């Protein structure tokens, strides 16, 4: 690893959605990292002014000596007191840390250099650094500084004290209409800002929406985000990333994502805030994908009518027909949807969020199938069947159904055990017989016991 330290250019970014009072300056005392694998050690989006600066009012002539701009001292691990682990990813750990000199708290993301290189993840680290350095909005986790030692990279992030939105969905079951409206509006506001900067998040989901100390959203995890090229008409990103329940159909059929793909994820999240579960659920990614491309989902009986209409307009198989996309007039029609009629858009960031109030019973903590517990899929289906009733789904153990044949070396089982939530392999290399086996195992109901 070899890095050059580059100061972030001081700038002010104004969002068209929130009030101008929400504008913040770029990170202070910031030492971004040049991640290996880039064509240059300097990130174009983070290049500050040249280190040679001219004295005000004194034009320099050729050959005259120029003064060197002072550089802030690089931060070091010993500058911080590290505390509890806030979260762990596939190649990073986020730890609460207090800066000794200022007593400020940060969420510091720590990445092992050796593991990054071994897993070929340098491009994801660089992408996250580049994108976050370009964001300045209260509804996003803020990157304040980066530094390194011989073995690790460190990202100093704003600390969202109340953790993941998903935690609250699971705890209280689902949000009432006021809460759903408020948090959906904040996500809309954040996406408008992001898309105006030509950035697609590509992995928007409740796990990546954190809540600050005052319970406003802070979107995080930009390792799979895409900065669309500014010098061309590029509107799509062609790599396949995301999480199964929130993946857009165009990513499955065309292997490309666009800004409208984030609007699809927004529709899934609005649905989940009301229903307590995402709209597309099944025992494994393959079956989830089948439901997505067929637009196969249902609304529970008590779903708020205006929220239902909004979700239907967001979950369109045609990305150019989703409310909020450029082809449909942009974000004005989305913000003007009847579901948001009571929202004051200009000052969302300073409003007091409504108290989280449950609307329907909480989902059982054991219902992990809806969130990616795909192990032993075939044996699960061979020992259980879904018994449907008018109000719920329950699991029973049939005595007369013969077990499915055990195929320890089948491609299906290998796929199930090799699942990676951050990267999907579209060409599953299944035979038609094996695909049919999976589909046959899918019942008309959902394996998760739901309140409806």
TrEMBL record:
PROSITE patterns linked to this entry: PROTEIN_KINASE_ATP, PROTEIN_KINASE_DOM, PROTEIN_KINASE_ST
Enzyme Commission number(s) of this protein: 2.7.11.1
Catalytic reaction list: L-threonyl-[protein] + ATP = O-phospho-L-threonyl-[protein] + ADP + H(+); L-seryl-[protein] + ATP = O-phospho-L-seryl-[protein] + ADP + H(+)
User: What GO biological process terms are annotated to this protein in UniProt?
Assistant: intracellular signal transduction
Supply the name of the protein: non-specific serine/threonine protein kinase
Tell me the CDD domains matching this sequence: STKc_PDK1
Q: Which UniProt keywords apply?
A: ATP-binding, Kinase, Nucleotide-binding, Serine/threonine-protein kinase, Transferase
Entries under InterPro entries matching the protein? Kinase-like_dom_sf (IPR011009), PDPK1 (IPR039046), Prot_kinase_dom (IPR000719), Protein_kinase_ATP_BS (IPR017441), Ser/Thr_kinase_AS (IPR008271), Ser_Thr_kinase_AGC (IPR050236)
Family under the similarity heading = Belongs to the protein kinase superfamily. AGC Ser/Thr protein kinase family. PDPK1 subfamily.
Q: Name one Pfam family in it.
A: Pkinase
Where does the Protein kinase domain lie?
A: 80-340
Chain residues that bind ATP: 109
Which GO MF terms does the UniProt record name? ATP binding; protein serine/threonine kinase activity
Q: Where is this region: Disordered?
A: 28-79
Compositional bias (Polar residues) at which positions? 38-65
């Amino acid at each position: 690893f070899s890095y050059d330290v580059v100061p972030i250019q001081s700038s002010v970014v104004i969002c068209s959605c929130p009030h101008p009072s929400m504008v913040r300056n770029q990170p202070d005392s910031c030492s971004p990292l040049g991640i290996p694998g880039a064509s240059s050690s300097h990130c174009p989006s983070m290049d500050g002014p040249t280190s040679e600066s001219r004295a005000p009012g004194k034009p320099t002539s050729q050959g005259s000596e120029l003064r060197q701009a002072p550089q802030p001292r690089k931060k070091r691990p010993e500058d911080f007191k590290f505390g509890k682990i806030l979260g762990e990813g596939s190649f990073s750990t986020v730890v609460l840390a207090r800066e000794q000199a200022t007593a400020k708290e940060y969420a510091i993301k720590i990445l092992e250099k050796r593991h990054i290189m071994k897993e070929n993840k340098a491009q994801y680290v660089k992408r996250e650094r580049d994108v976050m350095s370009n964001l300045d909005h209260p509804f996003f986790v803020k990157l304040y500084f980066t530094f390194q030692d011989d073995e690790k990279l460190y990202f100093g992030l704003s600390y969202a004290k109340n953790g993941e939105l998903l935690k609250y969905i699971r705890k209280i079951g689902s949000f009432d209409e006021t809460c759903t409206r408020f948090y959906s509006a904040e996500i809309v506001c954040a996406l408008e800002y992001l898309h105006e900067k030509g950035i697609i998040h590509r992995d928007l989901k409740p796990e990546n929406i954190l809540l600050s100390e005052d319970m406003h959203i802070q979107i995080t995890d930009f390792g799979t985000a895409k900065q669309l090229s500014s010098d061309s008409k590029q509107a799509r990103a062609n790599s396949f990333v995301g999480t199964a329940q929130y993946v857009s159909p165009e990513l499955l059929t065309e292997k490309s994502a666009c800004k409208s793909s984030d609007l699809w994820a927004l529709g899934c999240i609005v649905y989940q805030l009301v229903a307590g579960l995402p709209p597309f659920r099944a025992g494994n990614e393959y079956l989830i994908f089948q439901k997505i491309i067929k637009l196969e989902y249902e609304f529970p009986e008590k779903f708020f009518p205006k929220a239902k209409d909004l979700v239907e307009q967001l979950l369109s198989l045609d990305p150019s027909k989703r409310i909020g996309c450029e082809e449909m007039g942009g974000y004005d029609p989305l913000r003007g949807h009847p579901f948001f009629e009571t929202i004051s858009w200009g000052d969302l960031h300073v409003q007091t969020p409504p108290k989280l109030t449950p609307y329907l019973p909480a989902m059982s903590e054991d219902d992990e199938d809806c969130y990616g517990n795909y192990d032993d899929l075939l044996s699960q289906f061979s020992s259980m069947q879904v018994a449907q009733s008018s109000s719920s789904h329950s699991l029973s153990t049939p005595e007369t159904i013969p077990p499915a044949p055990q195929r320890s070396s089948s491609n299906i089982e290998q796929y199930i055990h090799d699942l990676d939530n951050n990267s999907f392999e579209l060409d599953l290399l299944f035979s038609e017989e094996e695909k049919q086996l999976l589909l046959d195992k899918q019942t008309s109901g959902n394996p998760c016991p739901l309140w409806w």
